Amino acid sequence: MQKRSAIFALTALLLWNASGAQKPATDSLLSLVAKAKPDTNKVNLLIDLGDQYQFGEQDRNTAKYFYRIADSLSRYLNYKEGLYKSQFYYVDVLIQQGRYDTSMSMCQQIMTKAKKEKDTTNYMHALYISAICQSEMQHYDIAARCYLQVADYYERTSNMRKLAMCYNELMLVYRHAGQFDNAIAYGKKALDLYSQYCLPEKISSPLQNLATVYQAMQQPDKAMQFLQKAILVSKKYNNEYDELTATINLSDIMLRTDPVNNHTKDYISRAIFLSKKEDADESMCEALCEAATFYLFHNHPETAQTYMDTALQVAKKTGLNSLTQQCYLLLSKVAYAAHDYKRAIAYDKLLDLTQEEINTANINRSIIDLQTKYETEKKEAQIKQLSTENHIQELLSQKRKIYIALLLLAIAALVLIGWLLYRNNLRKQKLLQTDKLLQQERIAALEQEKQLMASQAMLQGQEEERSRLARDLHDGLGGILSGAKYSLNDMKENAIVPAENVAALEKTMIMIDQSITELRRIAHNLMPESLSNQSLHEALNDYCSQVSSTSAVKINYYDLGMDTLQPDNTVKITVYRIVQELISNIIKHANASTVQVQIIAKDHLLRITVEDDGKGFDVASLENADGIGYKNIKSRIDFLKGRIDVRSTHEEGTSVYIEIPF
Q1: Apex CA 49: angle with CA 48 and CA 53, to 5°?
Q2: What is the DSSP letter of 590?
Q3: Are 143 and 121 a contacting pair, CB within 8 Å?
Q4: Could you give the CA distance from residue 283 to residue 301 in angstroms, rounded to a whole number?
Q5: In the chain, pLDDT over 90 holds for what percent of residues?
Q6: What are the angstrom distances between the C-alpha of 568 and each of 456, 524, 536, 597, 643?
Q7: Higher pLDDT, 425 or 599
Q8: CB 230 within 8 A of CB 211
Q9: Which pLDDT tens digit goes with each residue over 99-124?
Q10: What's the CA gap between 273 and 295, in Å, rounded?
């Protein structure tokens, strides 16, 4: 995602040769060209018109057309400066189109002509352009030699501005070659020369390039320092394009090193704003992808999805398959983060298809280049054949070359067909793997459903057993104790009891009363009558009030939106048991003085919060807890398809948050 501040170094070099005056608009230039006489002024107007189409209208083919006309007119007028200038601008378009072989061929012709005319300035200019092409073709050793030769000339002629550009390009070459010490050395030289001799607003270029060197060296802090300086310079001179590239690079580094830093969001927002203002679709797509990555790190997949939907639209608008591929990759990650595996698999398939389109395009481009090269060689060979006495023998040789070329093309076609068949087979295997994964997911879902049904049966059995025990205790043992109490009371009133036994009788009756009270409390805990006669929040309120009055812990109960909630009996009992178990655990283990119980019904969710000011505990120990308290709570929540979040701090208390859908 790293960018350079200038589109091409050649363009900047040509602009430094210009007068600096603002050029007329396209329509005005067309009018001036139409009225101009066929002289040197018309040559310059044609070059200016081509430059306007190249950069203003983004129409490179039309720009090349006007450069060719300027070249022809310069030849007719024997206008040396116009001839070199038109050819250099034409080569600039070829470089922008990625046609480096053709560019180098033209540069070689210019260098031959300049050497013959002893024109060192234009010779070095052509050598500089050749170095650009060698660098773009990843021939970094050749590019470095060319730049060093040009830099030596500019240093001898005291052309410090162009020397600064050479050092800037050498920094990039050594960075690509992995020679970081040389890259930093020339980067600092370029920075010094830009500061002393170049236009101040251009200093953003070496600053950003130095940042890329330090980033390649895994030193993001230094890279960010240079990028921040580049942003300040760009803002000072209102160079929004350089600010845009520096901002995108800076936010990219921050996402890699400190993804949760909120300042990253500010830089990304600025990049989106500048991309929109500059109408830079490619930069806009990259900035939107960075925004999605930021929100993905912050666990907001929905927001990330929104940004990626827009990024995908922009990527398709640019027509760049590489950007579209990047979007599908990030969309897949967003879908996985959102646990939407079906959508993630769909994006993976689109990613594979895009990669196939890229591969196919590369193969087609290679075939076209091969055909073009073949046709060029064929024409050159025919010209040579016509100029020799062995015309017939040369034709036979050319025919053999054609057969060989056709054979090579046939072999290439067979290789391509075999590769496509191989890719198709891989895709089928991937689809089979995907089907297998989906089947495994369905099996897992069935297993989970089976576990939930088992939990439901277990919980229902527990509640039925509790209800039976409560009835047996209340009706059986409770009746016996009550009968004993009445018998003793009757004995006290009607029988003659010795004075020394009256106190023992009174004590016995008090113990029976206490036993009856304790029996009722136990029966109530096993199956509270309030659950049958009252709503859920009324039953919980009664329970909290009862516990608060009979223990040393003060329990505050709050509810919201519960008046309209009418859960079925299973949900009602299960929620009651969850709260009951949580409060019981607090009383037993937390050593708390106050408990806050809050239950809210809103947006089809039942939100339960239980907080205490106790001694707290290590939450990680819950997974290995020996007791069944937490396991009972967890199984009940899983049964209701809810979720639980437990947070605890030592000596500061515990907070339990539960969500249950209804």
Answers
A1: 115
A2: I
A3: no
A4: 22
A5: 33
A6: 14, 20, 10, 22, 19
A7: 599
A8: yes
A9: 888 889 999 999 999 999 999 999 99
A10: 18
Q: In the numeric block, which tokens belong to residue 557? A: 């109960």
Q: Which residues contact 118 (CB under 8 A, 6 or more apart)?
A: none
Distance between start and end Cα atoms, the chain: 46
Q: What is the pTM of this model?
A: 0.51
58: left (phi over 0), alpha (psi -120 to 50) or beta: left
Say what the pLDDT of residue 171 is: 94
> For residue 335, how many other CB atoms are within 10 A of its CB?
22
Q: How far apart are CA 143 and CA 151, in angstroms?
A: 12
**CA–CA distance, 92 with 103 (Å, rounded to integer):** 8
| CA–CA gap between residue 296 and residue 302 (Å, rounded) | 9
Ranking 30-39, 338-347, 392-401, 598-607 by mean pLDDT, the lowest is 392-401
Q: pLDDT, tens digit, for every residue of 13-29?
A: 444 444 444 556 788 88
Phi and psi torsions of 96, nearest 5°: -60, -30
Q: Check if the beta carbon of residue 583 is closer than 8 Å to that of residue 595.
A: yes
**DSSP for 389-453, written as a single string:** S-HHHHHHHHHHHHHHHHHHHHHHHHHHHHHHHHHHHHHHHHHHHHHHHHHHHHHHHHHHHHHHH
The secondary structure element, H or E, covering residue 589 is: none
Q: Are 343 and 351 in contact (CB under 8 A)?
A: no
Reported as a single tens digit per residue, the pLDDT across 637-658 is 888 889 999 999 988 899 999 9
H or E segment and range at residue 605: strand 605-612
**Six token digits for residue 141:** 């050793």
User: What is the model's pLDDT at position 15?
Assistant: 41
> Which of the 8 DSSP states describes residue 472?
I
Over residues 343-361, the pLDDT tens digits come to: 889 888 988 888 888 777 6
**The residue type at 501:** N
Cβ pair 106, 94 in contact under 8 A? yes
